[in-house]
């Protein structure tokens, strides 16, 4: 069940109405049932996997808490480590089996073939369960937090199961920590008009990002990236820039719809994006892009590795490990590993060149607090990020190399000859794409310093409704549907 489908547009109002209608003590049960229905709408079989993950992490929390009561400290420490290890091992093994097993067996056979050794390794024809990386990380964060003593274990299995499977953020985040979401299931939510209105406005913005902007940009992006040998120069550059905007609008739209839907029912989900393409460095980009995943890696991988409290070279090593694993988290392919490695490389090189950069700035007396300098930083950061997106989007490593090779071709006439309109989007749709990008840019510009929804609610009622109805018009009339429309899947569902 996709957010941008009729199924969800019927499902969500019914769930919300009944949620507010039934007594508080039954609400978590209702949400648990509907969350499993939501997940099973893709493939009922994979409800078993999320159920196993839930039971394992729930039991590990109980066993860790019981281990805390053992008077023998050595014994207590041993059993706590045992339970957290088993929870990590079982959950990561399931993730490995369904997402990475074939990739690693294929890589292994390729390595052995280089030394003329042929090995037969069985492959598994599994369909990747939707959102498995997201709910696995969310469940594991609970186990680790209980182990560290950051939270108390949850006694109520139903409420814990809801924490793992809460439908607004189940399949593509935000990745929530138990301390932020689990306690909210104990709160009594009443129908609040302003909260419902704000949630619906956020959902409306998410639908606009998805249906009007992202899905339209995807047409040109798919045309070029699926046929890399047919395009050169600015055709590839335009496609790569469009993909940068597409994936941002696609992923942030899901987060916005998820946050908005949760807000309607009274829940607060974490902010996942904060105008990432206004970043002036790669470090800042990762403080603004997929914020909850970055926080997960920081808390549960980077800091345990030593974080910043170690030597410079060890810090570089820690950074690279995190980004390589982040790339692998996104997908079982060399492209994703290179994408992650590139970002790690950017950060390491940026840190190494920092003294040289400061020396040049001081010697040339360059003003760093002016608009022109900040604009240059933002553009350079975007170029680096956009270059890495080529590896992320390309269908294979060989195709990414071909795209980069063909990119260095001078053909500016595509904008005057009409060739730009032969990349899947006709002239009108191309203009609509530019309009969508401009609207996203304007909204993000306002959001840097203000809460857009607060600003909108402070306007006169006529102005507000012009905005609301315009957004609905863009979504329903000018959105990308077409004959035999089937809702386009969100990009991050594959992770």
UniProtKB/TrEMBL annotation:
Membrane topology of this protein: Multi-pass membrane protein
Record GO terms (molecular function): acyltransferase activity
InterPro entries noted in UniProt: Ac/AlaTfrase_AlgI/DltB (IPR024194), AlgI (IPR028362), MB_O-acyltransferase (IPR051085), MBOAT_fam (IPR004299)
Keyword field: Acyltransferase, Cell membrane, Membrane, Transferase, Transmembrane, Transmembrane helix
CC terms in the record's Gene Ontology section: plasma membrane
Presence of keyword Cell membrane: yes
Highest rank taxon of the organism: Bacteria
Pfam families (alphabetical): MBOAT
BP GO annotations: alginic acid biosynthetic process
Spans through the membrane: 7-26, 46-64, 84-106, 321-349, 375-394, 430-449, 461-483
UniProt subcellular location: Cell membrane
PANTHER family in the record: ACYLTRANSFERASE (PTHR13285), PROTEIN-CYSTEINE N-PALMITOYLTRANSFERASE RASP (PTHR13285:SF18)
Family: Belongs to the membrane-bound acyltransferase family.
Protein name: MBOAT family protein
Species the sequence originates in: Clostridium botulinum
């Amino acid at each position: 069940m996709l957010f941008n489908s009729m199924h969800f547009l019927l499902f969500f109002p019914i769930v919300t109405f009944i949620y507010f209608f039934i007594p508080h003590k039954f609400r978590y049960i209702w949400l648990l049932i509907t969350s499993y229905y939501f997940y099973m709408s893709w493939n009922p079989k994979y409800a078993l996997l999320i159920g196993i993950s839930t039971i394992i992490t729930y039991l590990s929390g109980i066993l860790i808490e019981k281990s805390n009561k053992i008077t023998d400290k050595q014994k207590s420490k041993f059993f706590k480590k045992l339970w957290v290890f088993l929870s990590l091992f079982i959950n990561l093994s399931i993730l490995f089996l369904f997402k990475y097993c074939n990739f690693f067996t294929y890589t292994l056979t390729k390595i052995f073939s280089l030394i003329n050794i042929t090995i037969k390794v069985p492959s598994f024809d599994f369909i990747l369960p939707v959102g498995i990386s997201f709910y696995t990380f969310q469940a594991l964060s609970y186990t680790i937090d209980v182990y560290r003593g950051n939270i108390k274990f949850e006694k109520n299995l139903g409420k814990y199961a809801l924490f793992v499977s809460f439908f607004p953020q189940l399949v593509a985040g935000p990745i929530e920590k138990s301390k932020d979401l689990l306690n909210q299931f104990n709160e009594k939510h009443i129908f609040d008009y302003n909260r419902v209105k704000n949630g619906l406005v956020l959902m409306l913005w998410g639908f606009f990002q998805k249906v009007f902007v992202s899905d339209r940009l995807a047409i040109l992006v798919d045309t070029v990236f699926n046929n890399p040998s047919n395009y050169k120069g600015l055709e590839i550059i335009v496609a790569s820039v469009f993909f940068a905007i597409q994936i941002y609008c696609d992923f942030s739209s899901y987060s916005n719809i998820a946050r908005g839907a949760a807000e309607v029912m009274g829940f607060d989900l974490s902010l996942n994006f904060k105008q990432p393409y206004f970043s002036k460095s790669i470090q800042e980009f990762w403080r603004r892009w997929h914020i909850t995943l970055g926080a997960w890696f920081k808390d549960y991988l980077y800091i345990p590795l030593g974080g910043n409290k170690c030597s410079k070279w060890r810090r570089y090593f820690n950074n690279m490990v995190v980004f390589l694993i982040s790339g692998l988290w996104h997908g079982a392919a060399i492209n994703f590993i290179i994408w992650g490695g590139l970002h790690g490389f950017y950060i390491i090189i940026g840190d190494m060149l920092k003294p040289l950069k400061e020396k040049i700035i001081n010697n040339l007396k360059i003003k760093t607090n002016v608009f022109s300098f900040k604009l240059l930083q933002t553009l350079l950061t975007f170029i680096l990020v956009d270059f890495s997106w080529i590896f992320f989007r390309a269908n294979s490593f060989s195709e990414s190399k071909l795209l980069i090779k063909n990119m260095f071709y001078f053909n500016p006439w595509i904008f005057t000859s009409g060739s730009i309109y032969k990349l899947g989007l006709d002239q009108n749709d191309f203009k609509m794409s530019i309009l969508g990008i401009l609207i996203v840019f304007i909204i993000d510009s306002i959001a840097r310093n203000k809460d857009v929804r607060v600003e909108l609610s402070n306007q006169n009622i006529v102005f507000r409704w012009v905005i609301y109805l315009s957004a609905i018009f863009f979504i329903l009339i000018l959105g990308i549907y077409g004959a035999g429309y089937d809702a386009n899947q969100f990009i991050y569902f594959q992770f």
